[in-house]
């Protein structure tokens, strides 16, 4: 055990991308413009279903730990102005498609997209259905904030066809909640779960964090057990990334209140033990699901995928993203909208696709992306087999140190991450990253 802890502490402090895309976002560039993206949309296959992601960068209050592109507002004015432009962007994108497309997955993220009023949500969903067709098995998901979620909100989601809601829990420890400016007693979160289920939105996710200020292994485990008692279908457990140089509001969190590397590791372990003891299956490096959940089945059948929303069962090759800062992809590459709301609005109002940057995916990129995705989802990969599928030579990766430390083993050419070192899968993936050495981005610690 001491050897494992020593290795995790040593390697876990190395910084690495989360690999929700490859190439990763720091390697996007301004050479991919709205005109380029428009051409990529023109080339889509009408016979293949797509995914939609819609970003709503507003919350009623700002949590100090938040790393998302969002802002706080208690006024409906900014949200209404944003929605009007969002609907125009939807029309701009739909007009560039080769025809009416089918949608297999829709996700509303933020921010808190459930901040939209019933009228606003109805207009948004009507606009989507006016230009797209949902497949019968489509998943329609949204993020909610249990502090501001009423019975009427739940009923409105059900009326608009939402099938899944993701609930931000983070921690049930009152001291931790005060330290991150997110007060939400267990009873309040439980009420939001009950309202969703009573309205007919039966699939519910819960998000938890470790590494928060004043958090301990005991409180992390207690929060995981309390979250499991609510019986969510899936849970995600992320390490808090303290980046005050990027998110100024994080300066409100005292550095001296943050747990050290060993304490973070103990919290992550405590949460993992709690959730697996409650019957949840481990998915990839940081997700959990019920044994009968489609995500668990996808892991077993080799159809699990990873994208900007984390692990997913969605098989679509195209993700059309709408809203400020939203990141999408087509078979040709990735694109990101302008992050500044005003700049995004100006582009859309002028009839331009509001792309700030992106990256075209080469054959080699696609091969490396496939290798990295298998490492991140299945904790194993046969690089030679993946390379052969792409008609390219097998990429070289320096894994010698990780092999000597027992983090990785190679059996018959298959690279296998030791389950005890699951959190270090990002470092194994990084060994196949052809851009990492040339980037200047400051990534989060691996554990």
Brief account:
With 447 residues, this protein is an alpha/beta fold.
Task: Provide structural commentary.
With about 450 residues, the protein is α/β, with parallel strands linked by helices. The protein is about 35% helix and about 20% strand. The protein has 15 helices and 19 strands. The strands form five sheets. The protein has a nine-stranded mixed beta sheet, with helices on both faces. α3 (about 75-95) crosses α11 (about 340-350), α8 (about 215-230) packs parallel to α9 and α12 runs antiparallel to α13 (about 385-390). The radius of gyration is 21 Å and the shape is globular.
> Would you tell me the structural class of the helices and strands?
alpha/beta
**Separation of the first and last Cα atoms:** 17 Å
User: What oligomerization state is this entry in?
Assistant: single chain
Q: What summary fits the major beta sheet?
A: 9 strands, mixed
Tally of DSSP helical segments: 15
Percent strand: 15-25%
What's the β-strand tally? 19
Helix fraction? 25-40%
Rg on CA atoms, Å: 21 Å
On the 0 to 100 scale, the average pLDDT is: 94
Low-confidence stretches: none
**Overall morphology:** globular
> Main sheet: which strands, in order across?
9-10-8-7-6-5-4-1-13
List the helices and strands and how they pair.
Blueprint: H1 2-12, H2 34-42, E1 50-56, E2 58-59, E3 71-72, H3 76-96, E4 101-110, H4 118-131, E5 132-144, H5 151-159, E6 164-170, H6 174-180, H7 186-199, E7 203-210, H8 217-229, E8 234-239, H9 261-277, E9 281-283, E10 287-289, H10 294-301, E11 305-307, E12 310-312, E13 319-322, E14 327-330, E15 333-337, H11 341-349, E16 355-360, H12 363-378, E17 380-381, H13 383-389, H14 400-404, E18 408-411, E19 414-417, H15 425-430
Parallel strand pairs: 1-4, 1-13, 2-3, 4-5, 5-6, 6-7, 7-8
Antiparallel strand pairs: 8-10, 9-10, 11-12, 14-15, 15-16, 17-19, 18-19
Helix pairs in contact: 3-4, 3-11, 5-7, 8-9, 12-13
């Amino acid at each position: 055990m001491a050897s494992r802890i020593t290795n995790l502490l040593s390697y876990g402090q190395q910084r690495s991308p989360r690999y929700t895309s490859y190439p990763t976002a720091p390697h996007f560039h301004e050479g991919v413009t709205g005109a380029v993206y428009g051409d990529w949309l023109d080339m889509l296959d009408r016979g293949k279903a797509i995914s939609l992601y819609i970003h709503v960068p507003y919350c009623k209050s700002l949590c100090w730990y938040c790393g998302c592109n969002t802002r706080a507002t208690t006024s409906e004015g900014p949200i209404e102005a944003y929605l009007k432009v969002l609907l125009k962007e939807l029309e701009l994108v739909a007009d560039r498609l080769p025809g009416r497309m089918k949608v297999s997955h829709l996700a509303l993220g933020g921010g808190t997209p459930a901040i939209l009023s019933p009228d606003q949500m109805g207009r948004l969903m009507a606009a989507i259905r006016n230009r797209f067709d949902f497949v019968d098995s489509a998943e329609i998901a949204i993020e909610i904030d249990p502090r501001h979620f009423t019975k009427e909100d739940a009923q409105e989601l059900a009326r608009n066809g939402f099938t899944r809601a993701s609930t931000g829990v983070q921690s049930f420890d009152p001291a931790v909640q005060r330290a991150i400016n997110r007060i939400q007693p267990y009873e309040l979160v439980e009420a939001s779960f009950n309202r969703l289920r009573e309205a007919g939105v039966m699939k519910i996710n819960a998000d938890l964090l470790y590494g928060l200020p004043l958090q301990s292994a005991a409180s992390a485990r207690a929060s995981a057990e309390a979250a499991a008692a609510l019986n969510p279908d899936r849970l995600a457990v992320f390490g808090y990334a303290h980046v005050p140089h990027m998110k100024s509001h994080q300066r409100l969190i005292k550095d001296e209140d943050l747990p050290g590397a060993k304490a973070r590791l103990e919290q992550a372990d405590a949460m993992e033990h709690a959730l697996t003891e409650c019957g949840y299956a481990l998915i990839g490096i940081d997700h959990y699901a019920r044994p009968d959940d489609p995500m668990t089945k996808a892991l077993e059948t080799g159809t699990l995928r990873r994208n900007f929303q984390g692990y997913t069962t969605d098989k679509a090759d195209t993700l059309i993203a709408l809203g400020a800062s939203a990141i999408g992809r087509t078979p040709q590459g990735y694109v990101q909208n302008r992050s500044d709301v005003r700049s995004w609005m100006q582009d859309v109002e002028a009839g331009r696709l509001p792309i700030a940057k992106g990256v075209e995916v080469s054959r080699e990129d696609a091969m490396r992306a496939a290798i990295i995705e298998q490492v991140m989802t299945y904790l194993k990969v046969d690089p030679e087999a993946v390379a052969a599928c792409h008609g390219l030579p097998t990429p070289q990766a320096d894994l010698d140190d990780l092999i000597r430390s027992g983090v990785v083993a190679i059996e018959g050419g298959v690279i296998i991450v030791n389950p005890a070192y699951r959190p270090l899968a990002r470092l194994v993936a990084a060994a196949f990253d052809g851009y990492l050495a040339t980037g200047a981005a400051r990534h989060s610690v691996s554990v």
